[in-house]
Structures are given as C-alpha cells and as structure tokens.
Amino acid sequence: xxxxxxxxxxxxxxxxxxxxxxxxxxxxxxxxxxxxxxxxxxxxxxxxxxxxxxxxxxxxxxxxxxxxxxxxxxxxxxxxxxxxxxxxxxxxxxxxxxxxxxxxxxxxxxxxxxxxxxxxxxxxxxxxxxxxxxxxxxxxxxxxxxxxxxxxxxxxxxxxxxxxxxxxxxxxxxxxxxxxxxxxxxxxxxxxxxxxxxxxxxxxxxxxxxxxxxxxxxxxxxxxxxxxxxxxxxxxxxxxxxxxxxxxxxxxxxxxxxxxxxxxxxxxxxxxxxxxxxxxxxxxxxxx
Length: 288
Hints:
By secondary structure, the chain is of the alpha+beta class. It contains 9 helices and 6 strands; from the N terminus they run E-E-E-H-E-E-H-H-E-H-H-H-H-H-H.
C-alpha cells in the first residue's frame, strides 16, 4: 500500500502525578523533518523520539507535541537545576563586569529562566517509558491514518490512469486520417493550380508530412509510463518521488503530442491529458 504524508494521531495516559498526552501531525515535505513542542524536562528524550519516528516514516514534516497536566491534588517537587544555575550565574557576572550599571536578576527572573526550575514529577528518567509507549501508540495510529488516506489517493490516481489509457487509444487511429486528409488537400490544390507534378513528388510531400506529425513514439511512451505508474502503485511503499518523476515524463510526452497536433481531436486529447497529469501531480505531492 502507498501512504499519504498527511495525518494526525494522538495518545494519552493518566498517572499518579498527572496526564501525559502526545500528538503527532504530519504534512507533505520533500524529506523527513521532525519538530517538537515538549516540556523542557523531556528534552533529553527528543533523540529517542526522533529515532522512533524515523524508523516508521521516510518523508513528511512531523510535528510532535507533548503536554503534561498535573493532578490538582498531587504534590509537586520543584528543584532548581544546579548546572543551569551555575551557567546563569557565570553569564550574569560577565554581563555585570561589562555593564556595571545593569540591574542584577531577581529571584523570580532566575526561577523563570528556561531550564533552571525542573519539575521532578516530570523527570525524563521517570516518564521515559510512558512517553516512548505513547509515541509508539501514536505512530501506529498515524500509520493507519496515512494508509487510509493513501488508499484514497491511489484510487484517484488509478481513475486518472484509466482515462489516460482511453485517450491514448482514441488518439492512435487519428494519424492515418490526418495523412489522408493532407493527401487529398494537396491533390486538390495541385489540380486547382492546373499543375501536373509527378506522383513521386506528391508522394514525397506526403511522406515528409507524415513524418513531421507522427506521434507513434509519444503514444508508445505514454503507454509505457502509464504502465510504470501502475506497477509502482502495485508495489507500494515510499514511492512519492518516483511517481513525481513519472508525472514529469508523462507531461513531457503530452506536450510533444500537442506540439505535433494537426487535428482538433488530437489537440483536445493533448489538453485533456495535461489536465489529468496535473491532477495526478497534485495528489502525488502528498504521497510518501
């Protein structure tokens, strides 16, 4: 199956100290990008969270949010971090040495400085297993969401491919009719001018015209590219980049088909092909 890069999942768990909640939101992106909005106390867990996501996803921008809601009756133990205090003190001394007129930091400002005051009830060591379990649950749900969305995208792409195949079959018999119309028109002009060129000369003009408007190669490539897209969809997996490349090749052949067109029907087919391909490319941008 193919997967969409768009999805959302959430998981939560209640504990003695409070409730932990994890939200994962993904959108399309060229590569895998992982961003977090988590309490500072859980920042040491970010590498493990990143590895867990990278093990299951290959593309997409992933936004991970973790919130902790303490129980109102629970006792909270707030302990200043000694290393953070030391670093802040050293930095403060350097600033005061350069700017003696500067006002020293108050106790409230020190306690509100990022990383200084840690909530022991939210210690990374204490809640690591809970957080990673919630991440695993959220990723599993996210996979299912992206797979369901991917199935819808695949159905849309297959519908467009069926229509493209029908258009190619419709275009195949148009060229002999165009050549015959040119031959008849050429013969009529020659007769109207009262000239009498040799049959060989007329035959040469018809051959040159037929070679100039021949689209057998473009139609064959369209058929081949459509078959390849079907094969990639059948194989599944992370195929978004491959499908995007194939859409570019399909568009190239449709453009050439239009540039060689000498019949209204062929022009119409070329335009409709390009519309279908553009619709496919819009959907392919969301495939992992």
